[in-house]
Amino acid sequence: MPWFALYTLSRQEKKASLYLEKQHIVHYLPLVKTLKQWSDRKKWVEEPLFKSYVFIQADFPSQTFYEATKTPGIAYPVRLEGKPHPIPDEVIEAIQQMIENGYRIKLQKIPLKAGTPVEIISGPLMGMRGEVVSGKGKFKFIIKVNTINTALLIDVPQENLSPLHKK
């Protein structure tokens, strides 16, 4: 089944996720730990990687998809060209792997400058494809989530990357 992005009401990602779980709808809310500073203390908290988005796995159109869009906290499905656009499984899997393996992730809004298409050839993300953006002597690896106009940016050593050749 394909994945779709749903736009949530402001700061309602976790609440929407709980309601989706109660409805037994397969969903994914990527959470990352962030150190928050208050005037009197610091605390590690889990925050959504993508603000105002939650992902569901459902066919479109289907009753499950319709129920997910009517869930409290959900504003509407993300659309491209007027209809919900599926997100490839490998993108969701890549996000899950990066979080599970403890990669520090920075979000970068698209459009991005065109980079060299590459594949990671070693390490836990081996086989993943994306683009390289070089910066300050380091190589940044980008995975685009076009449906929500966002890219994931991580540091990958140059020796772990291999350029993809156009066929």
What's this model, at a glance?
The chain is α+β, with helices and mostly antiparallel strands. It has helices spanning 13-22, 63-69, 89-100; strands spanning 3-8, 27-28, 31-37, 42-48, 53-57, 74-77, 79-80, 83-84, 106-109, 116-120, 129-135, 138-145, 150-155, 161-163. It is 17% helix and 41% strand.
Order of helices and strands: EHEEEEHEEEHEEEEEE
| CATH level 1 name of the largest domain | Alpha Beta
The profile of the biggest β sheet is: 6 strands, antiparallel
Work out the count of structural domains: 2
How would you portray this structure in words?
The chain has 167 residues and is an alpha+beta fold. The protein has two domains: 3-84, Alpha-Beta Plaits; 89-163, SH3 type barrels. 17% of the residues lie in helices and 41% in strands. It has three helices and 14 strands. A six-stranded antiparallel sheet has the order 9-13-12-11-10-14, with helices on one face. A hairpin with an 8-residue loop joins strand 10 and strand 11 (129-135).
Notable traits:
single chain, 3 helices, 2 domains, alpha+beta, 167 residues, SH3 type barrels
Q: How are the SSEs ordered, and which strands pair?
A:
Elements: E1 3-8, H1 13-22, E2 27-28, E3 31-37, E4 42-48, E5 53-57, H2 63-69, E6 74-77, E7 79-80, E8 83-84, H3 89-100, E9 106-109, E10 116-120, E11 129-135, E12 138-145, E13 150-155, E14 161-163
Antiparallel strand pairs: 1-5, 1-6, 2-5, 3-4, 7-8, 9-13, 10-11, 10-14, 11-12, 12-13
